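Reply to dn_fold:

You asked what the input looked like. This is it:
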Amino acid sequence: MSRGRLARWGHGAALALVAVYSVFPIYFITVQSLKTPQEDVFGSPFYVADPTVENYAELFAGPGARVRGFVVLPRVPFVRWLANSAVVLGASLVVTLVAGVLAAYALGRLQPPGWLWWRRALFATYVVPHTILFIPLYQVLIALGLDDSHGALILIYSTMALPFCVWILSAYYRHLPREIEESALVEGATPATAFLRIVLPMSRNVLVAAALFTVGTVGNDFMFASIFLLDPTRQTVAAGLGVMDVSLEELVAVAGVNLAAIPVATACALFARGYVRGLTAAMVEGA
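and this is what came back:
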C-alpha cells in the first residue's frame, strides 16, 4: 500500500473518530430520554430495550401534578419555556444583526478616526469573565426597569454576541471593492440603496456566520437566564430545566434538553456550509 493511500486512510480514521466523539453525546441523551424509570436503573446505559415517549409526553401534559409512587411531582410549563426561548432568541438575533451590520459598515467601510482600535477593543471584551459582570448588569437592568423580564436577556445576549459579529462583518466590509458601490452610485442609486441591494446581499454568508454564533450564544446560556429571570413562567428552556428537581424528574429533564437542542442543531446543520464560507470570507478579507 502506497504512502499516499495510508495517509488517506489515516485521515479518514481520524475524521471518523472525531465524528463518533461529536455524535455520541446526542445518541446517549436520546437513548436516555426514551427509557422508563425502571429501565434507567436496571437497563444498559448505551441502548434502550423498550423505548417509550412518555418522558416527552410529560413535557406537554399541561399544568397540574402527577403521582409517581408515593411522590407528587408538579408538571413543568415546557411549552411556555419554549415560547419564551423563541421570543428571546428571535429578538436577540434581530437586534444583534441590525446593530452589528450598521456598526460593522461604519467601522469597516467609513473608517472613522480610531476605527482599528475600536475593532480591537470590541473583540477584547471577550477576555472579561462573565461572572464579574453580574452585579453591574443587575444594577443597569434595575435602572432601566428590565429586571425579571425578557428584555433583560435580549439586551444581555445582544451585548454578548455583538462584538464578534461586528468584528467579522467589519473585516469583510473593509476589503470589499469600493467599485461595487461606486458603479451603483453612477447608475443613480443612493448610498442606502447601494448598501441594501448590493453590499448586504453580498455579505449573506458572513451574516449566516454571525447569526449562528448568536444562536449558539443564546441557546447555550444558563447562568444569565437563571439569575435574571426569577418568575418560573418567564424562564427559558435552559433555565427552567436547570431548576427542575432532577433527582425526581431526570428522564423528563433529559427529554426536554434533547427536544430543545433539535432546532439549534437543525439550523447549524442546514447552514453549516454558509457558516464556513462566512468565516472564511471574513478571515481572508483581513479579519
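The chain has a mean pLDDT of 82.
Hope that clears it up.
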